[in-house]
Design brief:
Layout: H1 17-30, H2 35-53, H3 65-77, H4 82-101, H5 124-138, H6 145-153, H7 159-170, H8 176-179, E1 187-188, E2 193-197, E3 209-213, H9 216-233, H10 254-268, E4 273-276, E5 282-284, H11 288-302, H12 308-314, H13 320-327, H14 332-341
């Protein structure tokens, strides 16, 4: 089992160190506060790259589905357990998914692999945990606008601030990390515009800063919050440069945004516990990122008047293809009906 090309736990990569470093950087941006998750994926991604080192017919910069098939056959041939194979392929899939979003590579060779492909004969209680953990990584759940509206009406106190935070997540489609980074100097109220930072990108990237536009109803809440809300909530913190403050801090933390979303969803009766992780913590259906993803999915699939390139700009994606791959859902019946409506076809 130790001959060249048959060492599943060899972790060095001789040829693809630059790809490994890009993967590490991308994982750090995706999981800035969870070191163990980064280590889990980067270590198993190195295993994949070390296998690629020994293959003349595999280029991990331009991988194809057949490459992952061959890697799985290789692992099976070396006696790897199904759990081990699932971990390896999950790391490949998640890491490539991030690299695709950042335009470092063009495709994800493991995008069609999920836990159930490997865990069918594992006891049902263990299999359910693995599948739920994977669902948490993929985070594909979305909610409807009416559920978001219920959340907006049921935010915990302080109501004005927390409604504005939810609107940042939904209508501006921001990440929680971006919301806590908004500075008052980033806001141009006369233009209904903010000039924000994208925490997923390097500060030297040309699209690290980008424009976000908002509607008048958002402007109304924002004006109220800036005029009186901040100072009434926390007079000692009101000189902070950051838009969102609390009684205890001049800058809110990402975890506080997470808790506001969780409480709003629970108060509205739309929250669900999806699973309990290995540490005994509940993982919820509706998170801060759910709001960004849900609004983008709704615009991409239900609002014909909103062009996909504009949505791509709103999300600060570098490519419209990234937006299409992430948010446009194929519906054969809808396509069939739409074609009947188009005269030029």
């Amino acid at each position: 089992m130790s001959n060249k090309g048959s060492i599943p736990d060899r972790i060095e990569t001789d040829q693809y160190g630059d790809l490994l470093e890009k993967a590490k950087d991308s994982l750090l941006k995706e999981y800035p506060n969870t070191e163990e998750t980064r280590k889990f994926h980067s270590k198993r991604f190195r295993y994949w790259l070390s296998w690629c080192d020994d293959r003349d017919d595999v280029d991990p910069w331009n991988p194809v589905l057949n490459d992952v098939d061959n890697y799985i056959r290789f692992l099976k041939g070396d006696g790897s357990s199904k759990r081990k194979i699932e971990h390896r392929v999950r790391a490949i899939r998640i890491t490539y998914d991030i690299l695709v979003q950042e335009n470092e590579v063009s495709n994800n060779p493991a995008k069609d692999y999920f836990a159930s492909d490997f865990l069918d004969d594992i006891p049902i209680n263990e299999r359910k945990v693995a599948e739920n953990e994977q669902a948490g990584d993929e985070n594909y759940d979305t909610i409807e606008p009416k559920e978001y509206e219920k959340m907006l009406e049921n935010v915990p106190s302080p109501r004005l601030r927390n409604q504005l935070i939810l609107k940042c997540l939904w209508t501006l489609m921001l990440r929680a990390e971006q919301v806590v980074q908004i500075r008052i100097g980033d806001i141009y109220p006369d233009e209904n515009r903010m000039y924000l930072r994208d925490n997923k990108k390097d500060s030297n990237d040309r699209d690290y800063r980008y424009n976000v536009f908002y509607k008048d109803d958002f402007s109304y809440l924002l004006e109220r919050w800036l005029d009186t809300g901040r100072e009434n909530l926390a007079p000692s913190m009101s000189d902070s440069e950051y838009l969102f403050i609390s009684h205890q801090s001049e800058q809110m933390k990402k975890e506080s945004i997470t808790e506001i979303v969780r409480q709003s969803a629970e108060n509205a009766g739309v929250q669900e516990v999806m699973y309990v992780d290995g540490k005994g913590d509940s993982r919820y259906k509706i998170t801060a990122h759910t709001l960004r993803r849900s609004c983008a999915t709704h615009l991409a699939n239900k609002v014909d008047s909103y062009p996909i390139h504009m949505l791509s700009n709103d999300l600060n994606h570098r490519s419209v293809d990234t937006t299409i791959d992430a948010y446009v859902r194929g519906d054969p019946e809808e396509r069939r009906n739409k074609r009947q409506e188009i005269d030029v076809l």
